[in-house]
Amino acid sequence: MPQRALISVYDKEGLELLGPGLAELGYEIISTGGSRQYLEQNGVPCREVAEITGQAELFSGRVKTLHPAVQAAILARRDQPGDLEQLQQAGWKPIDLVVVNLYPFARTRREEKEHGEILENIDIGGPTLIRAAAKNYRDVLIIVDPADYSWILEKLRAGRVERTQRRQLAARAFAHTAAYEQEIAGYFAGEDFETFPAAPEKVRELRYGENPQQKAALYRRPETSGTVVGSRQLGGKPLSYNNLLDAEAAWQAVREFSDPAWVLVKHGNPCGLGAAQLSGDALEKACRTDPLSAFGAVVASNRQVGEEEALYLAREPFIEVLLAPRIKEEGSQVLQARWKNIRLLETGGLPPDSSSNEPEIRSLQGGFLVQDTDIPAGENLELQVVSAREPSPGEREELIFAWQGVKHVRSNAILLARDRGAVGIGAGQMSRVDAARMAIWKAGERAAGSFLASDAFIPFADTLELAREAGVQGIIQPGGAKRDQEVIEAANRLNLIMVFTGRRHFRH
User: Mean pLDDT across the stretch 56-68?
Assistant: First the structure.
């Protein structure tokens, strides 16, 4: 008896490869609507599902495959004689391979179509076919991703798909339907449910996690445009767990700025930051922030990287990763000649907007935390000048730059900036005054004339006194401390500019 395949897909990509390949292997192909037409246009003979069920499609195609002749043919267990006997008695034959992908609900929803059109993109028969085939994975191959067509054909030509591979395909199938149902649930539940993202797809195993004794893997969700997860690697060794964490931190920081900007990150914290009208000037500022800490950094730019920027970077002792919207061929050649194993990542662009509706998730033992993504530091920013000394337009620009940068430093965080370049960063201290001491020490003589940003309110005047002694000209902070008035009075006594933002940017 020839084996049979059921093909019913919305996304026709790769069918011109899969359909003829299965036909050459002797499969009898059953298909529906647009899939059948596409296959026949590519020279693949098909049987319509209605021939198998004896029932024409109902409700303009709403009901096609929801029929015992289809479901039983998929679910019949080959090692259970009773299943096969019942199938035969009903006049039906087993289905051995199911190829299904689903209506584009997520895309239709994002395009803000009418409610009725969104409802019509809720696939009913497709998930049922997928779940049935995945449940019976020992006997039925289930394929939901066109990327799998090629290797599965190779396995079928060789005569066998291993049990472990069948189980992996089943796992991917259930993840596919889970993500789909999550999108639908989110739409019906509204914004309150949006904090729970769709189920991710496993991309690959990583060599190890933060440390060699920890296993790790990379997963992604459907929408990855302009992200680290969706980037294209042009060269270098595979990315590690820590590479990916630092790349994400660098990317989130650099996309904060509309002007050309560069960020260097080590262990989740910026150790270099610069912005300017020209990309090369921004890069120079970023590399001057903390040259000692920059060894082995992850470097990100929000502009394309060409030969000029690559030649400047090649002066650095060592860079782990470079990511940018685009890396030109001549830039890539320079960097790969300097470091054979440097990882080069092209994101293809920035995400569609500077903010993100995707929630942030942090694991806890036995559970997890979910929160909205923090808004860009410069978004709807209203500065309140609380000091007697008013900032000039140029000084306001310096303060805002420092504020945008400090958002991406681990709390307690202090950042000193001058000429739109970070000159000193104090990160992750239990005491804010210690964070200030670290930033001032890192800056050295460059602290004179700089502007200080604090990610949360400054509770005591001691931070101001340290800053003024180092030559800091102005301070930007959220405000809101019990001793705000005391701190404001200290700013006036020390002739410091001080502005409040009314917003904090803790980063734990």
Answer: 68
Q: Is the pLDDT of residue 354 over 50?
A: no
303, 318, 288, 319: which is closest to 443 by C-alpha? Answer: 288
Residue 212: C-alpha distances to residues 217, 239, 240, 295, 394 (Å): 13, 14, 11, 21, 48
Q: Is 135 a catalytic residue?
A: yes
Cis, peptide link before residue 412, omega less than 30° from 0: yes
Length of the chain counted residue by residue: 508
Q: What is the signed CA dihedral for 378, 380, 384, 385, rounded to 10 degrees? A: 40
Q: Are residues 264 and 398 in the same domain?
A: no
Q: Name the residue with higher pLDDT: 191 or 506.
A: 506
What distance in Å separates the CA atoms of residue 463 and residue 467, rounded to the nearest whole number?
6
Compute the average pLDDT of residues 137-160: 89
* 33 and 166 both lie in a single domain: yes
CA dist., res. 310 & res. 244, Å (int): 21
Q: How many CB atoms lie within 10 A of CB 458?
A: 26
Q: Which of 455, 400, 449 is nearest to 425 (CA)?
A: 455
Confidence of residue 277 (pLDDT cuts 50, 70, 90): very high
Nearest to 105 by CA among 191, 223, 187, 5: 187
376: in domain: no
> Pairing between strand 232-235 and 343-346?
antiparallel
Nearest to 505 by CA among 413, 382, 369, 367: 413
Contact indicator for 373, 505 with CB cutoff of 8 Å: no
The single-letter DSSP state of residue 26 is: T
* Active-site residue identified among 12, 113, 135, 237: 135
When divided into structural domains, the chain yields a total of 3
Query: Which has the closest alpha carbon to 123: 169, 48, 70, 65?
Result: 65
Q: Which residue segment(s) compose the domain that 329 sits in?
A: 231-346
d(CA 175, CA 168): 11
Of the two residues 71 and 237, the one the predictor is more confident about is 237
Q: Does residue 186 belong to any structural domain of this protein?
A: yes
Average confidence (pLDDT) over 31-44: 84
DSSP state of 327: B
Are residues 86 and 139 both part of a single domain? yes
Q: Which is nearest to 237 in space by CA: 321, 325, 301, 315?
A: 321
Active-site entry in 12, 155, 237, 267: 267
Q: What is the percent of the chain with per-residue pLDDT over 90, rounded to a whole number? A: 52
Instruction: Give me the chain's average pLDDT, please.
Output: 88
pLDDT attached to residue 195: 43
Residues 160 and 240 in one domain: no
Helices 68-75 & 125-135 angle (0-180, nearest 10): 20
